Each structure stands twice: as C-alpha cells, then as structure tokens.
Amino acid sequence: MKKYLIIGGAVFGIFLLIMVSLLFIGGGESTRNNEQVELVWWKTFQDSSDVQVLIDEYTKIRPNVTIKYNKKNIADYEQELLNAIASGNSPDIFTIHNDWLPKHIDKMVPMPTSVMTERAYRETFLGVVSGDFMFENKAYALPLSVDVLALYYNMDLLGSAGVFTPPVTWPEVVSASQKITALDGSGNFTRSGLAMGTSANINRATDLVSLLMLQQGTEFYNEDRTSARFNQQIRVNDQSINPGAVALNFYTQFARPSNKAYTWNSKADNSVDAFAQGKLAMMLSYSYMIPTIKDKARSLNWGVSEVPQPSRDSIKVNLANYWGEGVSKSSKNQAYAWDFLKFITERQNLAKYYEKVKAPSSRRDLLATQSNDVELGVFSDSAINAKSVYKPDAGKIETIFLKMIDDVVLRGSDPEDAVGDAVSQVNQLLRK
Q: In the chain, which end has fewer C-beta atoms inside a 10 angstrom radius, N or C?
C-alpha cells in the first residue's frame, strides 16, 4: 500500500507541476492561459497581410492572445512613436531600425534570458544583429530579415560597352562606367555608368559612403565609442593612409567634372528613376528595391550581383539595413510580447513568412535555403558579410554625412578636410 501511495503521490506531483507550468509562458511573468490579452504591434512598410501568417500561427497556440497590427508611415513613424510613449499609449511591440537602439534603448525592455540566452541569440542570428541589437549582453530586438546592398545592373548597357559580366571589384566598376558614360553637346549625361558621387539624388547615399569606409577598414570610433575617429590614419602594407578620406574621395570622384570617372551630377534624375528609364547602367541598392524596379520598368533587361569589393582578394564586406521588433518598457504584457517575438522568429515560422515576403533571412540556418533564388540569392549569400555603423542618433549622423559629401562635391573641400569636419560634428553629438 505504501508503494502505491508513493507512486500516486509522484503522479500527482507531476500533474501539479504540469498544471502550474501552464500558468506561465516564457518571459518570466505569470500569466494565465485563460486570460484575454491584446498585444499592439507597430511596424513600418509591411501590410497586415504580410505578417498575418505569423499572427495566425501564434494564435493557434495562444488562442487567448489577440495581435492588433498597425502599419505606420515611415515619414512620421518615429515622432508618432515618441508621442505615444509620452502620452502613455505605447504599443506593446514596435519596430526599430538597426541603427536606432542607442537613441531608443531607454524606451525598451531587454529580452529575458528565459526566452533566449545570449549564446542562442548570437548563434541564431547573423553577426551584425548582435552588434546592432545587443547592449551589455542583453538583446533588445528580434529581426525578421536582414537586407544588404547589391549591384543592380542594366544588361543591355553593359553589353553594348563590351562588358558581358557584372563588375566584381571597384576598379572594374570604374572601368565599365567610363565605357558606358556619354554626354551631349551641352555637357549633360545621356547615359551614366554609375549612380554615385552626390547626396540628394542617390538612393541611400550615406549608406554607400559608409560601405566604402567599412571596406577600406575605417575605424569609426574609439573602443568605448566616446570619440569619433574615422579621420584617423591607419597602417596598410607599411603605408599610412586615411581610409575615411580615401572612401569619400572615391565616392565623390564620380560627381567631379575634373575627374576621369565623372558620370553623375546633381542635375541627374533620382538614381532609381534613371535606372528604370534605362539611362543608368549601375546602381547600388537593397533587395527591397526589386518590386519598385519591376513596377517602374517592366521591359528593362536587368540583374543583380554582389556588391563590389576593393579587390578580388579582399575580405568581403557589405552593409546591413534592416528592422527589428522590440518590446516597450511601458507594456503591461511584456511576457506575452517576448513570447510572440520569439515564436515568429523561429525557423519554421520565418520560413512560412518568406513564402509571402521575399526577404533575406535574419537567421543563419535559413540563408542556404534562399541561395538558389534568382532574385534573392545574391542578397542572402551576401548577408553573412554584413556590417553596420554605430550611430548615437541616426538622423543627425545622416545629416552630417550628407554635408560631408556636399562639402567635397558642391563646395570644393578636400576629402580629408571634409571628413575631419564630420568627425568634429559627430564628437559634439557624442558629448551631448
């Protein structure tokens, strides 16, 4: 009898443990499964139909949870978010750009290690994600995808110039651009080889400068990020160079009439429009530009290839541009919010999401599955090489970099002087 009492007690104990565990979900907070919960999710760019598969899969296992999704206009999203938080009406989950964390970390709550450990986070997502969304070994956002730059090229324009494969290195890009570029009698471009050199009429001009700086080995800050140093000299092959100035000089040469690489100026159309119209042979952009090109230029013969590198022997470097989903510090349902984000970024759920939304994976273990995709493969193959640049305030850094470009192209400044002035402005920002 005593034996059966012991067995019965053990069974009851296991049953009780299971019942108690059902009252908790991964976020460290106690929440009853029969409690009705609404999570408000703010995100930019994507329609509700794009993320509905994620919401549907989650509510199958958490039928007591309702996800209220709101697509926000990027033009005023950040200010709307700040206003909502200040008024006590913050969404539970909101998206942030990969360079926004320093500015908005005080409004967010880190992911509990009970949801995902630091090691698991670093092993699951691309390396750039940990650099962008982790602070003091705590993760603050989970990305659905990670986009990177690629070279968009017009096959007909390259072919007509005797360039039958897309350039792989920057010297090859310069050579191809020179063969394609044509001007009329008034000095206006009838064909441009490459959209690079100016600020206002090039899609994500500051990203292109950042990419070139990263490829040159530029160190943007000192170790504790208290001082900018992208104007500093470094040693390369026993020579002292200023990689930041080298990158800026290379970028702006395409918009300087005195340079043999001259192929673009401030009078040109927007780079995306010029490419769609068949007036531009090459431009750099992200995978999110594919639907735009398809819509604007249905008969254009174009392709995408990996972003050019300084040489064929260079260690490949690309630039990341993506968004991550984080949880508001003001949310009353943080446990459920993190449970939802963890769920939707699991392998099987992201795979279903990518069937609806074509985007390079944020997860290491899904990149190989996208490699053979005609359009997406280039971006997925390059994502592993993605890096980013720390920005204490993304908007202000962008303004500083745009001025740096204009100082050279429009005001005739020496690239070293322009970079030095930009460093002084960033240091003023860091001291605030």
A: N
